[in-house]
Amino acid sequence: MSAEQKLYVTRPLVPPLEEFLPYLTEIWKSKILTNNGPFHQQLEKALADLLGVNHIALFANGTLALVTALQCLRVTGEVITTPYSFVASSHSLLWNGLKPVFVDIDPDTFNLDPGQIEAAITPLTSAIMPVHCYGTPCAVDSIQQIADNYGLKVIYDAAHSFRVEDQGGSILRYGDLSVLSFHATKVYNTFEGGAIVCPDAKTKQRIDYLKNFGFADETVVVAPGINGKMNEIQAAFGLLQLRYVDNAIAARKKIDTYYRNALSGIKGVRLRKLAPGIKHNYPYFPIFIDSCFPLTRDELYRKFRENDIYARRYFFPLISDFPMYRGLPSAAKTNLPVARQVADQVLCLPIYPTMQDSDADKVIAIIQRNA
Ligand SMILES: *Cc1c(COP(=O)(O)O)cnc(C)c1O
Questions:
Q1: Residue 30 Cα to chain centre, angstroms
Q2: Ligand 1, atom nearest to 88 Cα
C-alpha cells in the first residue's frame, strides 16, 4: 500500500509552497535569520491578537518553553502534576531538578482531579503543573483556589490548547503561565516551536532574557538562561499558518462529528465528552475500549495496523511508569487507578484537516466489523 493510502493518526498542516516563497525571499534579502527578527516580532504580535492574550514569548519548541517557564517562576522542590500526558511535561521538571508528585485524573476530563490535589501538598510543594489534556480545559477555578490558599504557582502545559476558548476567551489566560507547543503534529505548527503566554510585560522581559542565555544587553547576563529562541524561518511559517489554522480546526470538527455519529452507541467503545460552553480545537479523537468490546484495546490497535491505520495510544504508558519516575512514591499503582485504567483503554483515531470522510469510513468499518 502506498504512503498516501496509509492513515496516520495525524498529518501536519502545511500551506502551499508558493505562498511560503515570498517569506523566504524576504529572509534571504534581509539576512536576518534569528534573534528576535522582524518575522519573530510580527508573529508574537499576531498570536497575542489572535489568542487574545497580553504577552507571548516564542520558543524553538514546547519543551524548552516548559523548562524556561519553571525557571521564570523560580519553582523549587515538589510540583504536583498529571501522569496522563506526553512525557515532556514531567521531563521539564527533572531538567529543573524538581520532584514530580503525581495526582490522579478525572475520568471524564482526563485532567488532574482537583479534589485530590490538596492531599498531595507538602511543605516542599511550590507549584502545580496541570495539562489541558486533548484541549479540554482543566478545573481552572478550583486549581487557582488551591494555589491561592497554599501560595503555589500554576503553570499550564497547554500544548493541546491552541485556540480553545471558554465563555471569557482563551483558556491560556489562566494560571501564572501557559505553555504552547507548535510541533508539526499539533493543531498549529511552525515545523517545531513553542511559546509561553504570560500576563505582564515584566514577566515577558524575564522570559526573553532566559530564552537568550540570560542576556539583558550586550555585556550583562542576569540569569543562567538557555538558547530557546525561535528562528525566522519558523516564525515566517507560523505567520503563513495563521491564514489556515481556523479552517483547519473547522475541518477537524467535521471529522470529530462524523466519528461521533458513527461510533456513539457501540458497546464497549466510550467517546470523550466535549465539555459544554467551550470552543474546542479537536487535536485528537480518543476512544476508550472497555471489557464489553470483543477485542482488547491492543488487539484493536493491531487490527488497525494490519489495515494500514496507525492509531496511537495517547497516553500509554503513563509517565509515572517510565524508569526515571516509577520509583517515586506518587507513582505507586494504588495512587493512580483512574489514569491507569484510561491509559489501558485509550486509542486515538486519525484526525487531521485533509482527512476525507472516506478515510474516516475505513477507520469506522474496522471498529464496526469487530464490535
Ligand atoms: C507536544 C507536547 C509537548 C512538547 O512539545 P514539543 O514542542 O514537542 O517540545 C509537551 N506537552 C504536551 C502535553 C505535548 O503534547
A1: 34
A2: 10
